[in-house]
Structure formats: structure tokens, C-alpha cells
């Protein structure tokens, strides 16, 4: 569904490359993860694919068709993006309902009577929340609204930019489970960007590990879970991720023993 070939990105004509000729393929109906530390270029890749950054080199194809840097309106019916910060990606002075209707208006599509309530139910929200403003919702509810806004056009592809990193750990699991269920129900293709190995392992079948703007290793999720990664950076990243998880548990253990 998504094919990226020799993608390069720089932020100015004389600046160094921040993405250095990476290539990968995402199969239809599957989830592919880009993982790496902050600043490695993974979100920059997502912005190039989404059309938010037109200044890139290489080739990006969707469903076998090469994309032009300036995306057509039809592209956004097929590809929608869910951003990291649900509060920042929603208009603070518009109701949930009006923000869900907006993509339909932008695409000159008919607004069916139950369109908003149906998509809110699909993401596990009460349709009555459609008359609230973003500040009246919890962080998890806001991210569900952001997912609903992406789904209302019924696209086959979702680009997920750290969709759970701004949420509490318990809410993260709920959103990840929701995304997994939606993929099964709708046959969605996901490209997920995250710095968190656990998040990637929850959703993705294949993973590209990035460092310094390059893909240093592409592997299956079973190799990630078992720790059988090859590149030294991949090994360090996986080790750090596991150590961080253990550190997060220590304060809980101390509190319980007290």
C-alpha cells in the first residue's frame, strides 16, 4: 500500500540531510513501525508521506501509484494522519461535531444524518460528546476524537505520529487496543512512528529502526520481542527500552512494600 524508495529530506538548500535515503514498504492491511530516539528523523518521514513537507527527494507511492510532492484532494480521502498531541490538533473553539464534519465539507461529500454519531461510537465515545469542546474532554477522549476525525472519510491508510505518547500509561493501552480493533474491522493500513518499543510491538508486524536519519535495521516484531536484533544501535535501543521499563516499575514496588 505504501512504498518509500530512497527518501531524502533536508530543511534548507544548504543544510545537511535529516533523512538519508531510506526505503521501506508497508503491505495492505498491515502495520509498519518506525522506531528510534527523538531527532532521528522518523516524524520527518511521516510528514513527507502525508504531504505536510513537500521538499523531499526520492519516490513515495500509494497503492502502486507514485505521488507528486503537492498532494491532490483525493489523496487526503485515502490517507489521514493522527498527531501526537490531541489537544494541539483540535480547534479549541469548535465543538467536536463541527470538527468531525469539516473533513466531509472539505471533500465536498454528503453529510449523512448519523455520520458523526456513528464515527464517535466506532471509537468508543458517547455521541453526546459531539456537542462539547476539546477542553471539556479528557486526554484519552480527545485522542479518540482525533482518530474519529481521521476515520470519518473512511480512508484505507492512517499515519500515526506518536499517537499515545501524550497520554497516561493506562490510557495508552486503551488507545492501542482501539487502533488494533479498528484495523481488524476496517482492514486499515498503519504506518506508526514511536520512540517506544512496547507501543511498536503492540501494533506492528514489521519495524524499521532509525538512527541519524537512516534505517539501520528492518526486522520482524518477533525478533524485537526475543531481542534478536543485529545492528549495535538496535541492540542498545532495545536494551535501553527494557531498562526504562524496569525503572518505571521501581517506584510502584517501593510504594507497595511501604
From TrEMBL:
Which top class of enzyme applies to this chain? translocase
Q: Which CDD domains match?
A: ABC_NikE_OppD_transporters (cd03257)
Origin: domain of life = Bacteria
Topology term for the membrane: Peripheral membrane protein
EC numbers listed for it are 7.4.2.10
Q: Name one Pfam family in it.
A: ABC_tran
Q: Name one GO molecular function term.
A: ATP hydrolysis activity
Keyword field: ATP-binding, Cell inner membrane, Cell membrane, Membrane, Nucleotide-binding, Plasmid, Translocase, Transport
- Which compartments is it annotated to reside in? Cell inner membrane; Membrane
Domain called ABC transporter: residue spans: 2-237
Catalytic activity field: glutathione(out) + ATP + H2O = glutathione(in) + ADP + phosphate + H(+)
Subunit text? The complex is composed of two ATP-binding proteins (GsiA), two transmembrane proteins (GsiC and GsiD) and a solute-binding protein (GsiB).
What's this protein's family per the entry?
Belongs to the ABC transporter superfamily. Glutathione importer (TC 3.A.1.5.11) family.
PANTHER family listed in its UniProt record? GLUTATHIONE IMPORT ATP-BINDING PROTEIN GSIA, TRANSPORT ATP-BINDING PROTEIN
- Can you say what this protein is called? Glutathione import ATP-binding protein GsiA
Q: Which organism is it from?
A: Neorhizobium galegae bv. orientalis str. HAMBI 540
Amino acid at each position: 500500500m505504501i512504498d518509500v524508495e530512497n527518501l531524502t529530506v533536508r530543511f534548507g538548500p544548504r543544510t545537511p540531510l535529516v533523512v538519508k535515503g531510506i526505503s521501506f514498504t508497508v503491505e495492505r492491511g498491515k502495520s509498519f513501525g518506525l522506531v528510534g530516539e527523538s531527532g532521528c528523523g522518523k516524524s520527518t518521514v511521516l510528514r513527507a508521506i502525508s504531504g505536510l513537507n513537500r521538499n523531499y527527494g526520492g519516490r513515495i507511492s500509494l497503492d502502486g501509484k507514485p505521488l507528486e510532492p503537492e498532494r491532490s484532494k483525493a489523496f487526503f480521502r485515502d490517507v489521514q494522519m493522527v498527531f501526537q498531541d490531541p489537544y494541539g490538533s483540535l480547534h479549541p473553539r469548535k465543538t467536536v461535531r463541527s470538527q468531525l464534519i469539516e473533513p466531509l465539507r472539505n471533500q465536498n461529500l454528503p453529510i449523512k444524518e448519523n455520520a458523526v454519531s456513528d464515527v464517535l461510537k466506532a471509537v468508543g465515545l458517547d455521541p453526546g460528546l459531539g456537542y462539547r469542546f476539546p477542553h471539556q474532554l479528557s486526554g484519552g477522549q480527545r485522542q479518540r476524537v482525533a482518530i474519529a476525525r481521521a476515520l470519518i472519510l473512511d480512508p484505507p491508510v492512517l499515519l500515526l505520529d506518536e499517537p499515545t505518547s501524550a497520554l497516561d500509561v493506562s490510557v495508552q493501552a486503551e488507545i492501542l487496543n482501539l487502533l488494533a480493533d479498528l484495523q481488524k474491522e476496517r482492514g486499515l493500513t498503519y504506518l506508526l512512528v514511536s520512540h517506544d518499543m512496547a507501543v511498536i510491538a503492540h501494533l506492528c508486524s514489521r519495524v524499521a529502526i532509525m538512527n541519524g536519519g537512516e534505517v539501520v535495521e528492518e526486522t520482524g516484531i518477533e525478533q524485537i520481542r526475543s531481542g534478536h536484533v543485529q545492528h549495535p544501535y538496535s541492540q542498545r535501543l532495545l536494551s535501553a527500552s527494557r531498562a526504562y521499563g524496569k525503572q518505571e516499575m521501581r517506584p510502584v514496588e517501593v510504594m507497595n512494600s511501604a
